[in-house]
Amino acid sequence: MTAVEEEKLHVCSPHEGYNYFHCKSCRTVLCENCKSSHVEANHKISDAASYAFRFKERITKYKNDYINEVHIGEVKLRKYQLEIQNTIERTLLAFDLKIAGFLKMIRYKTEKRKTELYKELEDTLKKLNEEVKCNEYNEELDKIGIVVENIDQSRISDLNKNDLKKKFKDKKEKMNSLFRQGKRTSEKAKSFVLDCKEIEEIFKMYEQTTVNNLAKTYENEIANIKECEIKLHEKSQELRRENEKQVQIRQQNEAITRERTNLEEAVKELQQEKAKLNGEIDKLNTRFLATKKSVEMLEEENKRKQEQLEVLSSLITEKKEDIKRGRDGDGIKQEAAKKPESSKEVSYKEVKAVFDSTMLYIFDQKLTTLFLYHLVQKTVYKFNVIEYKIASNCGCVQIGDSFFVSGGFDTFNVQFSKRLLKLNLMEEEKQKLSAQWKKDMSVGKSQHKLVMLDLRYFYSLGGKSKEKKFLNTCERYDRNEDKWEPAPNLTEPKLNIGATSINGSAIFAFGGFKGVYCGTIEVLDLNDPKDKGKWKAVKVTNASGWAARGEVGCFQCSDKEIYVFGGIDQTGECNDEIIKFNAKEKVVSKTLWKLAKKEWFTMATPVRFNDKVLIAGFFGSDIHSFSEAEANTNPPSGSPWTLVDLKEWKLN
């Protein structure tokens, strides 16, 4: 059959459409046009593919049953043949054993009887010899009679005659007794001979009867074997006829299989067409979802950038007003080289917009790998930064989607580093890292704290250098001008400080290490009219929960409040306590919450995303998350502090 003829089998000749359906009432295949007339006639209509599948199952079941029956018949036939063959062999062996046993027994008894007869014959011959002697005795008796008569006639005295007669009488009696014994013996011998003849005849008859009986038994067994062979032949004939029927059925099955194959091919073609359509639909859905996700991401980024633009526009407006009032472009008076500028206080909403980001940068412990967590895509980008030779105990700060790394101890050159490196993802190709070297710091140092004031400035606080073990010097970096400027010094030299800005106008420094961990709180308030541009110690009215610590984490949580958490205390142990510091009232209060695990925050910088604040623990071992929505519920349904589950994130 050609491909064209096979194609015609699957096409409805009147309507030239593919036969997708099957009518159970008419037992025919139908196209879409034929289906309507059969439906109107209340016929049972089903899908051709499902009908072909059910038909295939029935054929497969019937075929398997037939194969099983044939296999069982063949097994039974072989079993019958083996049983008959074993029966014949056992019967012949039993007959041979029985005949041999009977013949052996007959021979044994015959030989035994012959031996007994020969012995009796010998005894008889002896007796016959004695009988012959008796005859001789008779002759002697006759002679004795003659002698007795002669004695009577002789002239011997009577006494002597009587003695002689008595002697001869005794001898005669003895001879007579011997004669009688010999006679009886001869009669016994004759009867014995007759008995021997009868016994031989009986033995002959017995042997012949036994052999005849065995022969008859053997003939009966042979007859039974022949009957079994006849039955076996009849059974083989029946099996042969069944095999012929099965061959016919197999031919019918092959014809049905060919029809089923044609139906399956038609169904496969339909399934392929369906799969193609489904694939195109899936591609369209995937494109739609990707486009939708991209649009959502773009909307979130546009929203965040719009908020940042609003903040920037307000800052630009302020700068313009400062310029009109006779100040320079930075809003700093000419003598500002020694004094930092005053900054306008902004709202907490504007602060969140400034600190908002869609990315979180974390170094590994060896500072050779940088992990970038994309908070929108929930994707982790991994970059090898060994070529930049990041110094140990460096300072880090994240501003928007940019990451700044400064200072540290350069183990390659064995010196304190001054370098400043800016890292961020390339906008054109998101899977590549962009690195730019910026202006060096004035002094090489490590274990200092970088803290962001606003989008333009960030400060470097404390640390240690080659000349001094502990530093109180500070400087700030101008992103617009790419330069470091001197800044007021801390009240005491120390390192590993926790610091954060509040409302873009003040910076608070918490604790630190100066040989021992200290509990001082310092503030640089750029809008303070008394000590403008100077650090001063904060006198806390209520220090509940606050103690000497270093390497704490902190961030602004409202217009006037700061969360301070974790760190290392005087015992050298990590801490999981969280306190709230009121910047206006200078009050410390201990919260009921605790971190999800004890942690210290070296080189950590907080990032805001939507209503959450994310901050990495010691070299990114864990990422702590704070939910403002959870903290603002009254009463709180649970702790707003959790650990980010990174199992759902994919590594790119």
Describe what is shown at a glance.
This protein is of the alpha+beta class and 652 residues long. 46% of the residues lie in helices and 22% in strands. The strands form 8 sheets. It has a 4-stranded mixed sheet, with no helix packed on it. Strands 7-8-11-12 form a 4-stranded antiparallel sheet, with no helix packed on it.
Which descriptors apply to this entry?
single chain; 652 residues; alpha+beta; Neuraminidase; 3 domains; 4-stranded mixed beta sheet; 6 helices; 46% helix
- Portion of residues within helices: 40-55%
What is the count of DSSP helices, taking H or I runs of 4+ residues?
6
What does the overall shape look like?
elongated
Ends: how far apart? 55 Å
Order of strands in the sheet with most strands: 4-5-6-29
**Structural class, please?**
alpha+beta
β-strand percent reads: 15-25%
Number of strands: 29
The name of the CATH architecture of the largest domain is 6 Propeller
Give the assembly state of these chains: single chain
